[in-house]
Design the sequence.
């Protein structure tokens, strides 16, 4: 259904009012201009979505007091009335002309003001978007000791600006499109034209084209819709609140997707290597970043395997431990009435509950939960003899390790796997853990992120010596002469050394 | 042929190494020591050298027909009927190899980690876990090989380093004392510890740079030869010839000996055994995949995925046929070796010779 605007203002307003029936937040402001020959105009906007002072001062005011319009009398002049208003009278920055009713309504609901003129079959769209938004604050999920502290907000325009400020290059491209039949959410695709791989960009666009959904609430929904394997527990798209991380990824030849109403930008492709990095790695000295990256890998292993190893060793292979430790272990478990696997599940579920309730409830109640959970449950459980103290240590170490992984989603994926590993260890011991490693490893190897192997650059497809400078170790900046190869950048050189 | 999947030369190197190294790394030192005594390393070296021509031949086949995959070449060159007979042999070989590998894993697991778990359960869980990767395409198999490759290298280096403190290198002497007539017999054993490079037949058509594949596959062979020789030398220097000859798995025994003070873990053999599961997975995965691929070729289906689950009970049953370790290490090994020789060596040589003659005729 494509309704085209008519010349009659009254009819246009009636059509608008029938389409927007029972929408009480739409405001119609009628004015009349001209001295001898009066012309009726009507401003239509959504209350609250627009900057009202801006429209009053620079659109309504300037029209009413406009000399030319007042003096304008000739009937024949009427055809170019829209030009006069648009070019000479309106003192606003953004102006468009539109004659489809649907598109006009679309702009109206996005926060633009519509100016309808009697006798003209076009509407003028005045860019007036302005709504109360959160100011730019420090990102809450990815804090750094050293480095920029601005984070994305819920408004797309602010977010793209924050990225644009870091890439003052004509080749930074920004394509905005709307997704969601009802929500009409603005989605911006950003890339640097001469670096990004054309196939990657095409893949991103074609996947977004395929989406047919009524609403997108957050970038995470878009993420689920376009990722390669939506059943996998692991994220195949990186998300970040940090504009500097987005800019850095664009320079690596990746594509960023920013979604309106979401402070999280998506970056594709993502690999297990990039998900294990934090922006801070690039801002602190290379020695520290390297040590921290190795530590993170250790944390990954611990968070996945520690409870399973405990179960396997206590239940199947106590002989693997040194004699003293084996005795200590046996002594500490002597009063525990459960097998190790029940003990592990009990404590893991408790800690998951503490974590979950702590996340949902913040502030003073959250602290109470921490104290109740950490101190009382841990201490009391040991004293009551339900779990062994070693188990408490292992569970604590495991959950701390899980939080040391920069990507929350990745860490969550491994957390789910941890429970499966405990079960496997309880049935088959160390052999069961290795079976789990085989299945998990196969899954990770099979995963792709937009055609890029998830385990890049370790996957060995196009591996170069230079690739490894930014993986487990992080070389000094001077070493990064070339962009990483796994994204297939077209422009490879990053810097020249003197 | 489907060009969507790509394998890099680095991945081919990793894949060949991970496919070759498997059971051999555990048992070869004592097997070869029983035949050639102190000169076992000569047998290992010669066995490696003798495999070079076959690797070259496999590479040459794909240089003759650069645009076709192995099955297309075979059908064109040998006529479908003869080629299908060879394919059935090849299929038997990979199924036997997978079963042999599985059975060995079961035996080792039962001795070192799970003494009370029934063999059947260990076998079926391992085959099930491997079936996941066998369902994927060649690019994934390549990636898997590349990921297992560092594990194997690390495994070998670890064994060598930890056994240095206890090594007594005078045990290596005397050299060049064994009977020259025993050399062919030794080579026969060591020659087949290198089988596994037949995965090249399925991989090379998808290689990114075919002209360099030969270099990388020979490099893989060299790496495996080096690992085998070093482990033989370490085992021999540790035990001396008489004790080595009596070990079933001298490599594992090497690890058992280690007892460095201040270790968090006292008995390393359990942990090393756990890692060895991954090494075996590196042999089992590609073998299982090849079996699926060959079946899909024989039955002319689009994907090989649907044959993976039906193959599971076959591998399982075959793996449980041998009654004891002696049957596994004597009869099962020789059957695997016969099929390997028939399907890899004879088939690829035949394809190359006939293909070469056909090409020359076409050119004239």
Sequence:
């Amino acid at each position: 259904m494509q309704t085209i605007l008519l010349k009659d203002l009254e009819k246009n307003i009636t059509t608008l009012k029938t389409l927007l029936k029972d929408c009480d937040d739409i405001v119609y402001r009628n004015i009349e201009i001209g001295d001898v020959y009066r012309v009726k105009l009507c401003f239509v906007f959504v209350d609250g979505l627009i900057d009202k002072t801006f429209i009053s001062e620079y659109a309504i005011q300037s029209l009413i007091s406009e000399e030319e319009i007042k003096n304008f009398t000739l009937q024949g002049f009427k055809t170019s009335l829209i030009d006069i208003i648009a070019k000479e009278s309106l003192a606003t920055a953004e102006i468009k002309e539109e004659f489809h009713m649907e598109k006009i309504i679309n702009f109206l609901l996005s926060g633009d003001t519509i100016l309808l003129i009697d006798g003209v079959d076009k509407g003028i769209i005045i860019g007036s978007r302005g709504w109360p938004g959160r100011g730019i604050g420090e990102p809450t999920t990815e804090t750094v000791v050293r480095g920029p502290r601005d984070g994305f907000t819920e408004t797309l325009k602010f977010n793209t600006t924050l990225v644009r400020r870091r890439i003052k290059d004509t080749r930074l491209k920004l394509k905005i499109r709307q997704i969601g039949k009802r929500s009409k959410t603005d989605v911006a695709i950003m890339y640097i034209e001469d670096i990004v791989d054309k196939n990657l960009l095409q893949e991103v666009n074609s996947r977004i084209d395929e989406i047919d959904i009524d609403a997108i609430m957050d970038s995470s929904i878009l993420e689920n819709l376009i990722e390669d394997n939506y059943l996998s527990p692991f994220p195949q798209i990186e998300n970040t609140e940090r504009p500097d991380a987005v800019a850095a990824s664009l320079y690596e030849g990746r594509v960023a997707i920013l979604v309106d109403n979401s402070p999280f930008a998506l970056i594709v492709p993502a690999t297990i290597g990039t998900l294990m990095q934090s922006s801070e790695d690039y801002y602190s000295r290379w020695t520290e970043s390297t040590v921290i990256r190795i530590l993170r890998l250790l944390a990954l292993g611990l968070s996945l395997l520690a409870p399973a190893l405990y179960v396997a060793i206590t239940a199947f292979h106590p002989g693997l431990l040194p004699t003293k430790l084996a005795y200590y272990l046996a002594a500490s478990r002597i009063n525990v009435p459960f097998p190790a696997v029940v003990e592990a599940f009990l404590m893991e579920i408790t800690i998951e509950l503490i974590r979950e309730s702590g996340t949902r409830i913040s502030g003073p109640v959250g602290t109470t939960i921490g104290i109740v959970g950490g101190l009382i449950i841990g201490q009391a459980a040991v004293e009551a003899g339900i779990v062994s103290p070693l188990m408490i240590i292992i569970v604590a170490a495991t959950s701390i390790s899980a939080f040391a992984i920069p990507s929350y989603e990745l860490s969550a994926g491994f957390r789910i796997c941890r429970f499966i590993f405990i079960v496997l260890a309880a049935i088959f011991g160390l052999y069961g853990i290795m079976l789990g490693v085989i299945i998990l490893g196969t899954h990770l190897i099979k995963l792709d992120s937009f055609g890029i192997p998830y385990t890049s650059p370790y996957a060995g497809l196009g591996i170069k010596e230079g690739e490894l400078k930014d993986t487990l170790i992080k070389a000094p900046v001077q070493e990064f002469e070339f962009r990483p190869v796994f994204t297939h950048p077209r422009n490879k050189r990053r810097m020249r050394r003197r | 042929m489907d060009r969507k999947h790509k394998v890099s030369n680095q991945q081919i190197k990793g894949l060949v190494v991970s496919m070759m190294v498997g059971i051999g790394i555990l048992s070869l030192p004592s097997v070869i020591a029983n035949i050639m005594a102190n000169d076992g390393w000569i047998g290992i070296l010669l066995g490696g050298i003798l495999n070079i021509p076959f690797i070259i031949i496999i590479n040459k086949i794909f240089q003759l027909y650069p645009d076709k995959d192995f099955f297309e070449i075979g059908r064109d060159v040998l006529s479908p009927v003869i080629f299908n007979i060879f394919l059935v042999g090849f299929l038997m070989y990979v199924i036997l190899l997978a079963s042999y590998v599985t059975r060995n894993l079961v035996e080792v697991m039962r001795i070192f980690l799970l003494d009370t778990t029934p063999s059947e359960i260990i076998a079926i869980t391992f085959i099930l876990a491997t079936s996941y990767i066998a369902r994927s395409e060649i690019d994934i198999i390549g990636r898997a090989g590349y990921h297992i490759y560092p594990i194997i290298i690390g495994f070998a280096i670890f064994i060598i380093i930890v056994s240095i403190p206890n090594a007594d290198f005078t045990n290596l002497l005397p050299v060049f004392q064994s009977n020259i007539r025993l050399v062919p017999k030794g080579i026969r054993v060591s020659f087949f510890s290198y089988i596994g490079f037949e995965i090249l037949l399925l991989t090379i058509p998808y290689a990114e740079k075919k002209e360099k594949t030969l270099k990388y596959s020979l490099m893989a062979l060299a790496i495996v030869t080096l690992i085998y020789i070093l482990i033989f030398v370490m085992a021999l220097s540790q035990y001396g010839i008489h004790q080595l000859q009596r070990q079933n798995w001298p490599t594992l025994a090497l690890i058992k000996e280690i007892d460095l003070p201040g270790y968090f873990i006292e008995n390393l053999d359990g942990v090393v055994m756990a890692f060895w599961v991954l090494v075996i997975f590196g042999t089992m995965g590609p073998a299982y995949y090849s079996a699926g691929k060959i079946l899909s070729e024989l039955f002319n289906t689009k994907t090989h995925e649907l044959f993976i689950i039906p193959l599971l009970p076959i591998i399982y049953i075959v793996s449980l046929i041998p009654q004891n370790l002696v049957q596994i290490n004597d009869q099962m090994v020789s059957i695997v070796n016969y099929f390997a020789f028939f399907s890899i060596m004879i088939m690829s040589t035949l394809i190359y010779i006939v293909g070469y003659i056909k090409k020359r005729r076409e050119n004239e």
Remarks:
- The mean pLDDT of chain A is 86.
